Amino acid sequence: MFRLGVGTGYSPIRDRSLLTWSALWTLVTLASFGLVTAIIPNPVFGRGVPVEPFAVIVWLASAPLIGIVMATYFAPVPASGKLSARRDGTTIGSIGGFAAFLAIGCPTCNKIALLLLGASGATSVFAPIQPLIGVVSLALLAGTLVWRLRLRSRGGGCAVSQRGAAQH
């Protein structure tokens, strides 16, 4: 059985603040990634190639992971009496989020892929590895989430306690 903290009694499921922030960031991620990559049809952004099924799966799977990871930075740390400014997992989580964005985006709309590979390279080289990028991004996000929740269960995290916030 997976346990976040030995003997801490902390459960993310019972942390209402974490759940609220998670829901908010999940919705923000779904909307922003969905609109910018044109998975959600809109008049501002378009796609040169149709949306692939793996892109929808990565989009729907990465949004809650990103949402919960982001919530660990914004929700107050459980009452531990400790103030901590640790940002463990930030780099890997950022890379995972960026990779998810690359995995779900249109290969011919990606300016970096177009500059490096040209239009034919974007479709023949970059597009086939997008599912792999998606799997790697989900693994990085899941690893970051486990790390952040373990840190949180031990009283660490980025959020300032209510007592600390009242002093500023």
Explained architecture:
The protein is mainly α. It has one domain (13-167). It is built from five helices and no strands. Helix 3 (90-104) packs across helix 4 (111-153). It is elongated and about 55 Å long. The N and C termini lie far apart (41 Å). The model is unreliable at 164-168 (pLDDT under 50).
Summed up, what is this model?
The protein has 168 residues and is an all-alpha fold.
Termini Cα gap: 41 Å
Rg measurement, Å: 18 Å
Assign a percent range to the helix content.
55-70%
**Mean pLDDT level:** 83
Number of distinct beta strands: 0
Task: Provide the structure class.
Answer: mainly alpha
Query: What coarse outline follows from CA principal-axis ratios?
Result: elongated
How many structural domains?
1
What are the key terms here?
single chain, 168 residues, disordered C terminus, 64% helix, elongated, mainly alpha
What topology does this entry show?
Layout: H1 16-36, H2 53-74, H3 90-104, H4 111-153, H5 162-167
Helix pairs in contact: 1-2, 2-3, 2-4, 3-4
